[in-house]
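Exercise 7.
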Amino acid sequence: MRIVRVARPDGPAFGVVRDTEQGEVVELIAPHPFAEFAGTGQVAPLERVKLLAPVIPTKILAIGRNYADHAAEMGGEVPPEPLVFAKLPTTVIGPDDAIVLPELSGEVHHEAELAVVVKRIARQVPVERAHEAILGYTCANDVTARDLQRTDGQWTRAKGFDTFCPLGPWISTDLDLADAAVRCRVNGQTRQDGSTRDLVFSIPQLVSHLSAFTTLLPGDVILTGTPAGVGELRDGDTVEVEVGGIGVLRNPVRAEA
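Solution. The predicted structure, written as tokens, is:
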């Protein structure tokens, strides 16, 4: 199932993408995907709706150096346990929204990632029950001001600028995590080409680790790490994050006005 969040004249609404003989359509649902829901009968062609970020989380918890090749390219080692940092909710944008390069940074990088969307309130979740806390998965770009990451000594500002967490295009509730491709293209050129098979810490391990110290809420997002190949974004670029089994998240890049 693909769950979307769409723009409506009366405010954002959730829906599901359905395949029909006439093509892909979005049917609005009620009340929301974090409880039992039903279709409302309100349908529109997918190509005619404006897709928003599929969720607006209360928090975004991210994992650093969760691919050995990326840890190596950044000059670090794989940590003995998940390296956790947070991004701010105001970083979130949706498909086709612009990533804005801030004047405060001269080196902004893309980081293609698989994102986990939390389904229910979850605290101290055992690894073997982690799947019960997961609604589904989406594409993410953990945009990073690399120069500020180096100079600040901690990552809040480097990871926290507005527009620095594109999510989308939808939440896929069915995904084979054994070997899902995680790719990034900039202006059509492949920069990153990894797979979830290379995750150092598995998604169940991450859910358990994170829920051991904080309560996960419905709609919260976990960024699972990025493979090697991170690189700079420039004004006028178009960056695409593709996760196998989900789809493509596309965003233009522009300099701050």
